[in-house]
Design goal:
With about 140 residues, the protein is α/β, with parallel strands linked by helices. It is built from three helices and eight strands. The chain has a four-stranded mixed β-sheet with strand order 1-4-3-2. The two termini are about 30 Å apart.
């Protein structure tokens, strides 16, 4: 089986706040799949998206309660092209309403940092250099 693309569906309390937050840290939206109920955040055009869905509409997809921002059910890790991109995205997230839920780490071959978006969803932004993988 080959997966064509991935959509991570996340409930959000305020779509406009989410749009502003993600736009300010450098991301864009696929407007063809965005409306007054959900926004289609482009993480990697054609391959990975996050559907930011209003709480009211999100409840039509599940029979379970929506977790609040104080619990963790998923960590979304996104790989970018450089350490500098990691630092820029996390800095902009923290400057525009995100919060730090833990510190990142530098393992030489793997570098990452973390933030929670305004709804409490946890994001790990990472860069890996396969040429520096430790040899066992």
């Amino acid at each position: 089986m080959k997966i064509k693309s991935i959509y991570v569906n996340l409930p959000v309390k305020d779509l406009e706040r989410s749009r502003t937050f993600w736009t300010k840290i450098g991301f864009s939206f696929n407007e063809d799949f965005s409306d007054d109920k959900a926004l289609c955040l482009e993480l990697h055009d054609g391959l990975m998206y996050s559907m930011l869905i209003s709480h009211e509409f999100f409840t039509t997809f599940t029979n379970r309660p929506i977790a609040d921002g104080s619990t963790t059910q998923v960590l979304t890790a996104v790989e970018v092209g450089s350490r500098e991109e990691v630092d820029t995205i996390v800095r902009l997230a923290l400057e525009n309403g995100g919060s730090r839920y833990r510190n990142g780490a530098d393992h030489g071959w793997l570098y990452y940092d973390c933030f929670a978006d305004p709804d409490g969803h946890q994001w790990e932004i990472m860069f890996s250099n396969q040429d520096q993988l430790p040899v066992s």
